[in-house]
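for the writeup, i need someone to sanity check this before i put it in the appendix. the sequnce is what the collaborator sent (i think, or maybe the updated version? ugh). structure was predicted straight from it, no edits. if anything looks off just tell me and ill rerun, i have time this weekend
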Amino acid sequence: MKMTEKKPALPPNIRIIPRLDIKGPNLVKGIHLEGLRVLGKPNRFARAYYESGADELLYVDIVASLYGRENLLEIVEKTSREIFIPLTAGGGLRSLEDIQRILRAGADKVALNTAAIHRPELIREAARRFGSSTIVISIEAILRPDGTYEAYTDNGREKTGLDARLWAVRAAELGAGEILITSIDREGTGQGFDLELTRQVAESVPIPVLCCGGAGKVEHVAQAVTEGKAQAVCMASLLHYHFVKHHPLSDQFAEEINLAHLRNGGGSSRIQEVDIPVMKTHLRGRGIICRPANPITTTSLCASPS
């Protein structure tokens, strides 16, 4: 009798992780990590995402490596007093001492990119001192003409010559606990994740892979799991634009935000308006296991996607 091929099971407990890019004291958003626009104060967004059921939060100071500074300490301290889900912080972390400071400020994990590429042994040292589960290696990748992907540093500005997949493998061997893979080509466009990039990395390492860059609708999030093999999905525009357009506090800090830009399409007509409860309902309808939305959330202000 012919055996029926068993369909591989989906990863359990998929995590939904809002990404908050920080420049100075502000939450910002751009396309391809460029053309940054101020959206508001990050703690307001973080609190709303926590209350609506986010599984974790990701803070990235996206100019820290470029200017040789790190501005996250105060933001992380404030956020950690108000939210009670894991918080990952990255950007400008160059040493074990930098990592220790941000962990003491309230972060649960750190995301390393530039410093780890410049000195890979930092991954092993950090994993031994703080534990592998604390160390996330962030890889910003751009598709090459030959179909491979190159890892970049400094917010997608500097070429490294490293193959992104092979760098992920080495990072895992050195002791990283997770890989955060971001497609610079897709970031902020709403065109969907680079599923080939995510799948290549996920199938090459024995640790969880977090997918980032390109989500424009909830179906893209589902595809990152079912086709890209990601175990967590990070997103920014997909959630930020809904918050700014609909959150009842938005008009109280309108001076901090380019509301006209966002209400006229947010820079991309491909971005769907969606919040976390709607997203998780959709994922569970697709058979993807994730934590229910937080019961303290307010009623969703957007219709369920088809």
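The domain at 15-285 is CATH 3.20.20.70 (TIM Barrel). Residues 1-8, 295-306 have pLDDT under 50 and may be disordered.
thx in advance!!
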